[in-house]
Amino acid sequence: MSKREKLLEQLEAKFSATGQDLDTHLEGLLAANYITYWDYIKTDALLSLQQQRTSYPDEMVFIMYHQVNELLFKMMLWEIEQVSKNQNLTVDFFAEKLYRVSRYVDVLASSFEVMGDGMSMDQYQKFRHTLTPASGFQSAQYRKIEFASTELINLIDNRYRATIDRNTPYSHAFEHLYWQAAGKDFVTGKKNMLLTNFEDKYRKDFLRFMKEYNETNLWSKFKSLPEDTRSDVKLLNAMRHYDHTMNVRWVMAHYTAAGKYLAKPDGTVEEATGGSDWRKYMLPKYQKRIFFPELWSQDELDNWGIDNLESYTKL
């Protein structure tokens, strides 16, 4: 039997299994146009998504940079989902997915130079006010990456973790997530428009996502593995690298870029475009955002976001 005959036989079996006719599909293939790069990638649609609000050229840099971030976030969630739904995890599969995710975060962290050094300070100070109350803080995918990476307690504001446990309703835990500090007065409970708009759009989806990943996040999946698997150096290095890259290197790159554009000559800083006190929730040393806390020594935990932990990412 020739290769073509084997392919036809396999196609016949494929379509017959779902009650479809192979000849109909072959006729459709005969009539169809060839696929092109621009049709497959949807280039025209992709390049039509950059809509400036001002005439300042560097606003286009700002828009496209954040759109690239969102595409990378989607790639990260795609990889994490495969781990979450895998019922027969192996060390190699888990580690490979984590290293993929870390490579995406490496790109994010290193790419901040594109925006940090790639925009005119004068232009940014003019177009940024047209963005209020929008903010990069309002990236739903970024929050989902956090929910999918670790147990919820590790995302609770450090001041309130002692009051939260597994019996706490998701809605209550949501109100004490670390990033609430960017737009909420915890004394009065009042939220600014940045946070209100964000929650009006995504709160229901976030609560559903929190529940979905409650026991299938990366940290929970890791802890469910056999003890000998959890001690695998390759896997531990992958976990630690991802944790540090996401929660220290990426955040500090963002923090540094924000400081450059928002710092005033007198040493004070402006609010972010959404009105957030970005220093309160960004700095790792304050919030101690750590996905996999038990994989770090006490010294590493105490110095999280303070000392350079690059040397600690390999066991």
* Count of discrete alpha- or pi-helical segments spanning 4 or more residues: 17
Assigned CATH architecture of the largest domain: Up-down Bundle
Low-pLDDT segments, ≥5 res: 309-313
Structural class: mainly alpha
Order of helices and strands: HHHHHHHHHHHHHHHHH
- Oligomeric form of this entry? single chain
Distance between the termini: 54 Å
Instruction: Report the β-strand fraction as a percent range.
Output: under 5%
Q: Say what the CATH topology of the largest domain is.
A: Methane Monooxygenase Hydroxylase, Chain G, domain 1
Largest sheet: none
Radius of gyration: 23 Å
What is the percent of helical residues?
55-70%
Mean pLDDT: 89
> In CATH, what is the class of the largest domain?
Mainly Alpha
Secondary structure elements and pairings:
Layout: H1 3-16, H2 22-31, H3 37-41, H4 43-47, H5 58-84, H6 91-110, H7 112-116, H8 121-127, H9 140-149, H10 170-174, H11 193-212, H12 218-223, H13 227-230, H14 233-262, H15 278-282, H16 284-287, H17 298-302
Helix pairs in contact: 5-6, 5-9, 6-14, 9-11
Structural write-up:
The protein has 315 residues and is mostly helical. The chain has 17 helices and no strands. Helix 5 packs antiparallel against helix 6. The longest helix has 30 residues, at 233-262. Mean pLDDT is 89; it is low at 309-313.
